[in-house]
Amino acid sequence: MEIDSVRVESSLWIGNKRYRAHLSGWYFSWTEIDKRNREKKTISVPVSEVIGVKEGRVEIQPQKKVEDTDIDFTLFYVKRSSKGNGIRAPWSLGRTQFCCPSRAVRDQWITQLRTALKTHSPSRPHRLLVFINPFGGKKRGKQIFHSLVAPLFELAGISSHVVVTERANQARDYILKKDLTGFDGVICVGGDGMFSELLHGVIGRTQQEAGVSEHDLTVMLQPCDLHIGIIPAGSTDCVCFTTIGINDPVTSTLHIIIGDSQPLDVCSVHYQSTLVRYSVSMVGYGFYGDVLAESERHRWMGPLRYDYSGCMVYLGNRSYPGLVQYLPADSHISSPRDNTRCLSGCRVCSESKERLFPHFDSSSSLYSTNVSQYSSELEGEWVTVEGRFKCVSLTCMSSSCPRSPKGLSPSAHLADGTADLILVRETNPLGFLTYLHRHTNTQDQFDLPFVEVHRVRAVRFSLPPGEEEEEEEEGDREVQASAERVLDDPEKLCSSDIAGHSQQHLAGRTERRNVTTSRVKHRGFVCGTCCTKPRSISVWNCDGEILPHTEISCRIHGQLVRLFARGIEDSTMA
Q: Residues 6 or more apart from 414 whose CB is under 8 A from it?
């Protein structure tokens, strides 16, 4: 019998109050009945948001407690809370204990609810690979997982294999090399850096198995089947905030449990014929690169170094020459100035699948079918912009965070195969401060005469003729030392100086360190604010990592990976 035609209804009790419970189709509802048999308040829970059904009276929080009775069962489900510290309401674990007239009635309810759960939530994960970064953020990764996440996984019947990382790129290497058979997803308990490791591992593993070279800028990468989940435990957690709307471990865990799936665009960054790195949030040159490079000189300050470095770089008031070429996206589909938000169920992202994968057979799964082919995405008329820039930024998402709820580009989409290119030309310090301040309020940061934004499919950045020679003449010993600290782990930059197979590149090779470090010494990242001679070039900040190259090419790969998320829910849904 189809579950949609199953109709279960009976009287149940919650405490001393009688309710009429009803399971039909996609919802389980219970309505309070007063002494005159009149209906009062009704509570309705989508079956897809039921976390679990347990016999007896069961409590999970603050600690597990089970009272086995013959006529009771406990329902656990997603409960939307009041407005929280984000741009959406957080989720919490709802719990209701029902008392039945008899054990037979209780068993019937449990059986029917579990059957409905399997029918309406077939994509829920059953086994997960969890990576915990014990050093990220406030170093609470292990505590967050064991106290908040693990009990919910157990309640939902999800088994997990936990790896506590001890070095940089351990998670990435594990995904690239170990047997992942049986895992439905990989989870990071950490910040954006930990997510980046999983991202590189999942993409690299998928391309290896598909026989696709990641270094080829013209190739269409194979979409990744393995989902990625994020339990926020870092300092900023930009990716989590942008894809869910709040940095809350319980909310993220519940999204993972119910098997939410959010496709995500990824930007590949190349130097000549070599893949340098993947990015999902920001690739920034100028101000944002300088802040990261400057912060490397003040690591002893901890997280405060970012605020300090931002202030120092702002006072330096630098701008840099550059030649930017970009391939525009179709302006009829969407625009970075259309004042829309990419929310859960976004129409633009939903309708982009057919455009991004024109040869995809809808009868099969995109993420289990080899769709690799040479793409025509780089065809079209390129636009060239030359000048001096305070900063050049490319973002595949709004890149919002608690300190900047709108983000770098408020109308950017998560899964439409485009990114937003933001060019901030040379201007006076007050004008640039106005631009930065508008990221924190409701004013339009693009409504300034020295700022332009374009929705693009690909970008190339180069130095104007004559600048490279000056770049090689200059040096900064302090910043070289900072660069060498970044390069102490030769795999940290996920870069390669020898084009080759993707596995060789992503696994890294120790002997390449000297080549990369030598290049950085010649390029010199950024001088301190007391430098007597302003720098002529900046560095690229790629999702919090310094790139070893200045002249790069970027391409957007639409819906390349999938997260355990659903996008930001509209506030009216809370």
A: 242, 243, 262, 263, 264, 265, 342, 346, 349, 396, 397, 567
Q: Is 192 a catalytic residue?
A: yes
Paired with 515 in beta bridges are none
Kindly give the pairing relationship between strand 72-80 and strand 65-67. unpaired
End-to-end CA distance of the chain: 34
- Say how many C-beta atoms besides its own lie within 10 A of residue 505's C-beta: 23
**Dihedral pair phi/psi, residue 302, rounded to 5°:** 70, -155
- Categorize the per-residue pLDDT at 84 as very low, low, confident or very high, splitting at 50, 70 and 90: low
Please give the mean pLDDT across all residues of the chain: 85
Residues composing the chain? 574
The DSSP letter of residue 442 is S
Mean pLDDT of 438-445: 93
The answer to whether the beta carbons of residues 234 and 201 sit under 8 Å apart is no
Question: Are the C-beta atoms of 92 and 81 separated by less than 8 Å?
Answer: yes
Which residues are paired to 98 by β-bridges?
73
Q: Which residues pair with 455 in a beta bridge?
A: 420
With beta carbons less than 8 A apart as the criterion, state whether 496 and 274 touch. Answer: yes
Element at 388 (helix H, strand E): strand 383-395
Q: Alpha-carbon distance 103 to 108, whole Å?
A: 9
Segment (H or E) for 17: strand 17-24
Torsion (CA) 326, 328, 329, 330 in degrees, nearest 10: -170
Q: Closest Cα partner for 420 from 318, 307, 525, 342?
A: 342
Instruction: Give the up-direction half-sphere exposure of residue 510: CA atoms within 13 A in the CB hemisphere.
Output: 0
**Who wins on pLDDT, 272 or 354?**
272
**Per-residue pLDDT at 440 exceeds 50:** yes
Catalytic one of 192, 290, 476, 497: 192
- Encode pLDDT of 492-537 as tens digits: 333 333 333 344 344 333 333 333 333 434 334 444 554 545 678 9
Longest dimension (CA), the chain: 90
Portion of the chain with pLDDT greater than 70, in percent: 82
C-alpha atoms less than 13 angstroms from C-alpha of 112 in its C-beta half-sphere: 24
